[in-house]
Amino acid sequence: MIKRTFKTCVALAAFTLPGMAAANDSAELEKIRAEIQQMKESYEGRIQNLENKLQASLTSAGKAQESAAKAETAAIEASSHTPASANAFNPGISLILSGIYAHRSQNSDSHISGFQAGGDVGPGLRGFSLAESELGIYSNIDHYFYGGINAAMHADDTVSVEEAFVQTSALPYGLTVKGGRFFSGVGYLNEQHAHAWDFVDSPLAYQAFLGGQYGDDGVQLRWIAPTDTFVELGAEAGRGRIAGTAGRDKNGTGMGSIFAHVGGDIGISNSWRAGLSYLRTSAHERESPDLDAAGSFVTNSFSGTSRLWIADFVWKYAPNGNFNYTNFKLQGEYLNRHEDGSLTYDIHAANSTAGYSADQSGWYVQGVYQFMPYWRAGLRYDRLDGGSVDYTTNSANLLATGYNPQRVSLMLDFSPSEFSRIRLQLAQDKSRDNATDNQIFVQYIMSLGAHGAHKY
Amino acid sequence: MKTLINTLLTALILLSMQSAQAALNVFACEPEWGALAQELGGDKVSVYVATQALQDVHHVQARPSLLAKMRSANLVVCTGAELEIGWLPVLLQQAGNPAIQPGKPAYFEASNYVQRLEIPQRLDRAEGDIHPLGNPHIQTDPHNIAKVGDALTQRLAEIDPANAAMYQARHKDFAQRWQDAIKRWEAQAAPLKGVAIVVQHKGFPYIENWLGLHEVAELEPKPGVEPTSTHLAKVLAQLQQQPAKMIIRAAYSDERASQWLAERAKIPVVVLPYTVGGSERAKDLFGLFDDSVQRLLDANK
Q1: What value of ipTM does the predicted structure carry?
Q2: Facing A323 at nearest CB: one of B61, B97, B111
């Protein structure tokens, strides 16, 4: 295009110039022609130059486009490995806030008639009270370990360490080792934090045999079998801090457990898990609230060996496996405990120690139904079997009546989002002989911060 | 004794041969990535898909069966961008499988290989279920599938170098068929450009971006929050002013809210399969987009 314009100009000049130089001699004409030829050559050279430059710039523009595309790809890649600031290494922090209003027909001298239960027994205080606030800080430690802490802040201004463990993430063959303080893997509900429970309180059988929930200092080994059906085996060794005890100051262990879980799916709508666990603890000065033969509220203390069997199952159903709209969960556990050792009756006054042995059991079954988004209703039935108890020489002070405690709980909860839940629970609690406790609870549970993934 | 040792040795050799021949166990979090892995891997992969089209991937239970599959997985292919944050971390932590931990080659997040949309300016749970890393529902744009396919091929070749040539050959074939299909879909979907739509959940920005659909309202008051009657009434009032041609929802979401609005606003509801398996025709990735484009065109008539 440019080239053609210049050629036209040159041609025009060639035609007009002779007219202007009319009557000049041929030598002059020759000279002019030579000059024009020179001009023409020089212009053509320049045009060629320009064309080359243009071509070059066009090519580099193409290259720029290409490199822009490359930059985009690089940016996408970079955005996937971004975190640049030091804070990016901060662990995930989650905070659970919870509070309860309780209205009950009985006083707070909670105990389970006929059972030497320690730890968290009973439904807590009446009136308004702060429930446990849980602060959880968890993170990968490096490419070998994961770990963190879960601290519980209680309404009475004390803080306890619920869990503080490290766990391997690099062991092959389905193996995981955990060390520190952790909730034992026995049973089903035991490993779940209180904020994930479907009812305000733990099952009566957990209160009677596990101090509400059993966490210990020790080590745990788990192995998942390389099968399509879920098969998990586990074993634990620990200090024996069961039911509010501190454990003995001695070498070796005060607790050992083994457990097995199996699970799977049935179609796309159903999933299940079942398990069997055995827990042996050497309880040391395990204090339990009780009512003696005279009707006085006393504290007893047990030291000895405690063997507990647990069978558990859970079944979850949601149409097409879509849990958003409706779903149903059924779970149940059976616990059987045999204890041998010595029991000190009324440690604050009489303080009389004698031999003690007991064979007792308990179970609960509960169903929770989400009937529409955000709304769930649940029913739980608890029952304990007084079994056989031998207080030996303390049998004048403590009566083995063979009473079978039971409780029925009904709950309705509303969860406006994944992070908040408000619950109403009504219960008739017959864990004390001749003293039925009618209970109303209103509870809130809120979770802030890191989005915790929930166990099955 | 000698016979016993010989038998044992033979058994061991047979076992190791079998494991050398055994297909690569792929754990796919979503059906679209399962389908893609199958396209690229052919008979060299054995794909397990953890969720299906009628489930909301945000809310999945960390079921025992998933844990069992995670334990034996050789490659985990998920969307990432925190879509699976409610269940995947538990599986990874408990599986006792060091190969598929985040950061390892056998852990693959698809959303790392596409340009993510809707990265929030303000991070606050009061805004609903928002994703800090951007909208994770990337599978509704076939160009994203192509990009993830490129990256996944590289990854397959990296963790299973013995079959690298086969993965690359299959990818070449797939990529060609996919580009042809994209041209076809884009030609078919030309009339959809600029069409105003209402969506149930903010789960469609990528298909909107691809086809030039214009989202005017959402049925969810906030992402992840179920539609309320007050909000629906507001959307209905808005549609009087600013009409839309259709309401779009994913196969897994509840039909009531969209049906309610459709009857009153007199516009059709389009149920997009959303992922492989979400409709009769969405049997594979090609069917997914054939069906999605067709359903949108039918509603636009």
Answers
A1: 0.85
A2: B61
